[in-house]
Amino acid sequence: MARYQNRKILHELQKDYGDVVRSGPTEVTLFGTEAFYKLHGSESSCGRAAYYDLLHPIVSLDTTRDPTIHANRRKVRDRALV
After folding, report:
1. pLDDT tier at 57 (50, 70, 90 boundaries)?
2. What CA–CA distance (Å, rounded) separates 21 from 18?
C-alpha cells in the first residue's frame, strides 16, 4: 500500500515548496505549464542533461545541448514558418 503514496507525497511537497520541487538527487518535479517554462523557457539559464546526447551524432533543434547551435537552427526554422 505504501508504494502507491507517491502522488500524495508529491502533492504535499507542492503545497510546501511550490510548483518546482526537487524530488530526488537528480530529479525535479514540475507542476503545471508555468513551472515547465521556468525551467525550459527562453529566460531559463538551465542547460540540458547529457540524456540529450542519446541520439548523437543526429542533432535536431529539440535535442541540441549547445545554445549557439540551438539559436542558429531556431532562426532558420522561424524564417520557414513566416
Report:
1. confident
2. 7
**Mean pLDDT across 12-34:** 91
| DSSP track, 2-64 | GGG-HHHHHHHHHHHH-SEEEEETTEEEE-SHHHHHHHHSTT------GGGGGGTT---TTT-
1, 46, 48, 57 from 39: Cα distances, Å = 33, 7, 10, 25
Between CA 12 and CA 59 the distance in angstroms is 39
Taking the model in full, what pTM does it have? Answer: 0.55
Cell of 38: 521556468
- 2 falls in which pLDDT band (50, 70, 90)? low
